[in-house]
Design goal:
Length: 139
């Protein structure tokens, strides 16, 4: 297997998910389904997904189609994604495309910022500005 998905449910209802290994476009649907399965656990209130150890990233077009591959009956949980600085622009695109599909997702570089955002409850992702967004980001 080219990737590994693992999860740990915290006492506060945040599900920590780590995705490690190699990005393989042919296995993205498997990875998505693994995350959805973890998110369906009882007691999960929101997700913190760490992809910083994932080697390679989807292109912008792949990201768009990956979002559309998420099963319609997936839990709509507020989701913070930890990303490397060099990939944050793709993360911002993903956030917008996911929002258009009804998901509340925001990419962060710093875990503390992600946890603070998650702690703010289930408000729409666009209501809270991201402090670590690059200056070149256009929303």
């Amino acid at each position: 297997m080219s990737h590994e998905v693992s999860g740990n449910l915290r006492d506060d209802g945040i599900l920590d998910i780590a995705i490690r290994g190699d990005h393989d476009p042919g296995l993205i649907l498997d990875m998505i389904l693994e995350v959805v399965k973890l998110a369906r656990q009882p007691g999960v209130k929101c997700l913190l997904i760490d992809i910083r150890e994932l080697r390679g990233r989807a292109s912008f077009s792949e990201s768009y189609f990956n979002i559309r591959s998420i099963p319609a009956d997936s839990p709509r949980l507020k989701t913070a994604v930890l990303e490397l600085p060099e990939h944050i622009e793709k993360g911002v695109f993903f956030d917008t495309a996911a929002g258009n599909m009804g998901f509340t997702v925001k990419h962060f570089i710093h875990e503390g910022d992600a946890l603070s955002w998650l702690a703010q409850g289930t408000a729409n992702a666009d209501e809270t500005p991201r402090a670590d967004a690059p200056a070149t980001t256009i929303r």
